[in-house]
Structures are given as structure tokens and as C-alpha cells.
Amino acid sequence: MLVVGVSVGFPTSGKPVVSLVVLEGGRGDPVFVESCEIKTAEKEVFEQIIDLGRKFHSKLSGLKPEAVVLRIADIPTRASRAAGPRHRLMIEGALAYVCNEQKVQNVALCTGREVGIELGMSKADAQACGERLDAKHPEAASAGIVALPSES
User: Fold this and answer.
1) Taking residues 29-39, what's their average pLDDT?
2) How far apart are CA 41 and CA 47, in angstroms?
3) CA 16 – CA 19 distance, rounded (Å)
4) What's residue 86's pLDDT?
5) What is the pLDDT of residues 120-150, one digit of tens each?
6) CA nearest to 115, candidates 131, 104, 127
7) R_g of the chain computed on alpha carbons
8) If we measure between CA atoms, which residue out of 50, 22, 16 comes closest to residue 35?
9) How far apart are alpha carbons 17 and 39 in whole angstroms?
10) Do 105 and 32 touch, CB atoms closer than 8 A?
11) Cβ-based neighbours of 77, under 8 Å, separated by 6 or more
12) How high is the pLDDT of residue 78?
């Protein structure tokens, strides 16, 4: 079973980066297949969303995963007027739409806390599991583990 974990981040460049980690195997013994980043050179928010969506569409077309887990923004502890969180939510929505367009059978949206709960551990422990699979993209890796089958 091929699964993809996805997360959106804003590194120091300030431009959004979509991280993908492809996994196989089971939750108890996930196997790293590959990872990549999708970036955009666009300056306007709307254009960035469109560009990232198109590139994600192309990547999913080639992978044909059975499941995708989008690691979405955690619920903030206090209100903020910062543009970054809203921008991230718009990108995550576009990525979810692409999954629907690609007819991915199993799509889940999970916050970091929900990833931990789904894996039966804390958010920090789930992040550590993801880091062991892919140190550069731990959020996407831990999200991908959620889609892997549990050993019975």
C-alpha cells in the first residue's frame, strides 16, 4: 500500500513549501520510499495556491497513492491576525481538492495532535517517529504513518 503524507510550511524564505513523504508497509514498520518538496516562485498568494495545486496534481498523478494524509495547521492557542496561518489553510484546502480530483480513495486531514492520537502517542512522539523516517520532513512523514495499515 503506497501512502503519501503531506505538510505545508513556510521556511525562512517566507514562501510556502509543500512537503511530501511516500511510505509503504505498516504502522509498526513503515518503509520510507521517497520524499520531495513542491515550491513556487510566484509572489502573489492566489498565484502561489494555483501553482502549488498544479504541481501537487502532477506529482499525485505519477504516484497514484492509495491514501493521502494532509497534516493541517493545529488550532492556535490564541487569536492572531498574521497572514501566514490563513495562507497555509488556503493551500491545504487546495491540496485536499486536488486529492479529490485525482480520485484518491482515502484522504484524511489531521492536525499534529490528531496524528499523535491516531498513532496512540503524543504529538511530540509522533513527530519523533516521523523524524526517524525523514529528518527533513517529519510532519509529512508522521502524517503518512497514519494512513498505513495497523498490524492485527
Assistant:
1) 96
2) 9
3) 10
4) 79
5) 999 999 999 999 999 999 999 999 999 999 8
6) 127
7) 15
8) 22
9) 5
10) no
11) none
12) 66
- β-bridge partners, 19: 7, 37
End-to-end CA distance of the chain: 16
- pLDDT tens digits, 53-98: 999 999 999 999 999 999 998 766 666 666 567 788 999 999 999 9
Residue with cell 513527530: 127
Average confidence (pLDDT) over 5-17: 89
**How many angstroms separate the CA atoms of 90 and 93, rounded?**
5
Per the model's pLDDT, the better-predicted residue between 150 and 24 turns out to be 24
Predicted confidence at residue 83, as pLDDT, reads 59
Q: Do residues 116 and 74 make contact, with C-beta atoms less than 8 angstroms apart?
A: no
Would you call 36 helix, strand, or coil by DSSP?
A: strand
pTM passes above 0.85: yes
Helix (H) / strand (E) element for 149: namely none
CA–CA gap between residue 6 and residue 142 (Å, rounded): 9
Q: Which amino acid is at 35?
A: S
Nearest to 4 by CA among 91, 86, 108: 108
For the record, the C-alpha cell of 82 comes out as 498574521
- Enumerate the β-bridge partners of residue 17: 9, 39
Set of cell numbers at residue 48:
502561489
